[in-house]
Amino acid sequence: MPPSLSGTIIVVGASSGIGRALAMQLAHEARPVAIVARRAETLDEVAREINDKVGARRAFPFEHDVSDIESVDRLFTRIEAELGQVDELHYTAGIMPEVEIDEFPTDKDAAMQTTNAIGCMAWVNAAARRFLPRKQGHIVGVTSVAGDRGRLDRPGYNASKACQDTFLESIRNRLWRHGIKVTTARPGPVHTPMTEGLDVPMAISAESAAKSIVKARDRGRAIVYVPFKWRIIMFVIRSIPSFLFRRMSV
Question: What is the pLDDT of residue 78?
């Protein structure tokens, strides 16, 4: 844990996958962790599991649907009132509905933009408004290697992650001069409920991804590929000319 961080942590999307694993790991830092997700029953179970393993009450559940962007600021204020000043935010919420290769579903695309990108913007903006006058804080956004290139599979998902990446970079450029760090974590395939039933070669566990993300936070990294090999893989993929890339089945 960076010595400058000692306040409350918020993990959005903490009911499963990387968010759940992050909340579990961060709770060992002896700081309050507000775990935020829309499934109240699952969230309560996660809080109990974390607190049992840590041996103290560190995880505190807050029900919230990230598509309800109007309620974000109120919930942020409530969390600080109940748990103390927040100085760290992790946004891990995301959806990836199945999309067939001959399907062009605006409804699914809009849902992915709302959850993956707009929800991220709402929470990051709420954190930035509070961190800026304090000149302190750390924001971590979990995106995906899918945002690095426009692949033929799931255009809406790829676009939502690219949107997240660009937004986080812009926020990082605004805040770094004020002592506030913004880390973009770009995982490759991860075994989570979102990828259940899908063919996910080279997938890692959510726990392994969470460890890499926390390590990147500790080192103050701006961008981290999880695991590191995806930095090399995506460098090669980004280098492929468009006229060749469109002919590839990726």
Answer: 98
pLDDT tens, position by position, 201-228 = 788 999 999 999 999 999 999 999 999 9
How many structural domains comprise the chain? 1
| pLDDT for 112 | 97
Is residue 17 within 8 A of residue 206, CB to CB? The reply is yes
Residue span of the structural domain in which 86 resides:
8-245
Amino acid present at 48: R
CB burial class (10 A; 0-12, 13-18, 19+) of residue 249? exposed
In a domain, 88, yes or no: yes
Give per-residue pLDDT as tens, 150-175: 988 899 999 999 999 999 999 999 99
Residue 34 domain flag: yes
Mean pLDDT for the chain? 94
Residue 208 located in a structural domain:
yes
Q: Could you give the C-alpha distances from 53 to 18, 28, 163, in angstroms and in order?
A: 18, 9, 36
Query: Would you say residue 3 lies in a domain?
Result: no
pLDDT confidence tier of residue 3, bands split at 50, 70 and 90: low
Amino acid at 213: I
Find the CATH number of the domain harbouring 35: 3.40.50.720
Residue 2 near residue 9, CB atoms below 8 Å: no
